[in-house]
From TrEMBL:
Coiled coil residues, start to end: none
Domain ATP synthase A/B type C-terminal per the UniProt entry, residue ranges: 246-314
Keywords, ordered alphabetically: ATP synthesis, ATP-binding, CF(1), Ion transport, Membrane, Nucleotide-binding, Translocase, Transport
Protein's cellular compartments: Membrane
Family to which the UniProt record says this protein belongs: Belongs to the ATPase alpha/beta chains family.
One Pfam family linked to the record: ATP-synt_VA_C
SUPFAM superfamilies: C-terminal domain of alpha and beta subunits of F1 ATP synthase (SSF47917), P-loop containing nucleoside triphosphate hydrolases (SSF52540)
Tree of life domain: Bacteria
The protein's name in its UniProt record: ATP synthase A/B type C-terminal domain-containing protein
Lineage, uppermost ranks: Bacteria, Bacillati, Bacillota, Bacilli, Bacillales
Primary residence: membrane
Organism: Psychrobacillus mangrovi
Amino acid sequence: MDEIRLNVALLRRKVPNLTTAAKSIGIRPATVSNLCTGKIDLGKAEVRTLVGLASLANCSVDELIIRGEKLNMIETKIKTLDFFAPLVKEGTTGLIARPGMGQVVILAELMHRFKKSNYTTVFLLPTTEYSVLEGTIELADYVTKSIEETFKRLSAISGDIIFITDKSYIVSGEILDLQEKLLAESINNITTILLDLSGEVVDEEMPYGPLETVWQLDVDLATRHLYPAVHPLYSTSSIIEGVDLDQRHFNLRQRAQKLLRRYRELRSIVTVHGKDKIRDTDLETYKRGIRLEAYFTQPFFVAEEVTGQEGKEVTMEQTLKDVEYILEGKADDLSIKELMFKGSLA
């Protein structure tokens, strides 16, 4: 049987306000979001849900389903992003965070890393000025100030593009107009990253519309200064499901999430009552969970002057080896300090 997935790009173009539209016909926005990112297997989706989405997009169910087309990931060499929620090439990624949780630093680091790659970064400035962007937008290859200027710039670049912009252009509908114009010109070499510096996205069910990847930041990790504070359970990508992801990666991700989910439950007990209240059978899970959590911290190149730590890159293959090493208990003798803000274990 062919692997199938939702045609997220078509849905994004055809239904500008998907959250409201989905609710109007009795489909939960969370269901749509989970279908887009792959949390819900499209093959297990209710027929009425697919029919409803097709009606909203004014297309057939067959047009809404992509069969046998493999998604590709862009390797960032940021461990937690590549492992839990890979960046989908030519897809759309949304950053969900409150102010001060590190989303701007993640964007700055990505732009820094892409300068050494074949990707060209274009940053469309938000409609509102934000002082937090000072020193960050300069890392982009090109900075634009309007949709019209952005279209001209994107049209002139022949190679792969990372396009970054703010939610305000989604609210106004201008991003949809831009995507339509790019589609009409057969320009499809663009990977989009969306952010919302106001932090309002945290309280919305589907703030950016359909997404291939969600990077949700975690207030608990940010409070404890465990950066990048990417939530390992809520961050996800449509590339995770099916044949789009290496089976070893898929299995390790499931094992890691299961461990971290239980670790978080145990940590809440330890925080209040101490380790003595944990059963002996759970103590091993707790110890490995805290080590895995520490491993996913990573020093960034753009933060070297602030942290005094040299930035690190870790390939996906090495990350898989390291996570397997920790899950199998081979890092049990390593201290948390030996794992915190390091690169690889090799």
